[in-house]
Specification:
Chain lengths: ~110, ~120
Amino acid sequence: GQNIDQPTEMTATEGAIVQINCTYQTSGFNGLFWYQQHAGEAPTFLSYNVLDGLEEKGRFSSFLSRSKGYSYLLLKELQMKDSASYLCAVRALRGTGANNLFFGTGTRLTVIP
Amino acid sequence: GAVVSQHPSRVICKSGTSVKIECRSLDFQATTMFWYRQFPKQSLMLMATSNEGSKATYEQGVEKDKFLINHASLTLSTLTVTSAHPEDSSFYICSASAPGAIQETQYFGPGTRLLVL
């Protein structure tokens, strides 16, 4: 089975940096994704890691350590519009040959002035 | 690119009726489409994986006779909730996997909010 953990809620100040952690236990690991989801909307793709290390994309960076089953999403220069839920999703290759995404419960980030 | 649409965005129906939700990939052909369900303040739960021209693969605990999936073409998949009950009220989201996209990233539709009275 898949076990994905991330904090439920976080609060940070506009202009600051925030790190959202995700730990996972899975078989058939085949990549880790971060998605942003605003309330009542569908998730939008932010980043993808399959090898260890840091992937940087503008104000967002994502890190992966496969040996530790650990990832984080780093958001810099926070803006009010960054208030949303951030979903950590692990892709796993299953016995059927299918690649499926398994989501954590999401971290609800509130950015305050 | 990689836009996925869903229709309807919101539906209210009476208990016992059936509801059909459409998922379309607008600017690419999707080899695989996925259907998820999300209850308030909970994570997305995969319901089924749908490949064009073949039967859908359902996750454990998801009734295939209740949630009918048809993937008739590379750009369209439909989910029909048959004999809906209030406990089926949820946010249903589809996603599509684009060949050649970044490591088969899934792109999500805007979701359909279903309320069964």
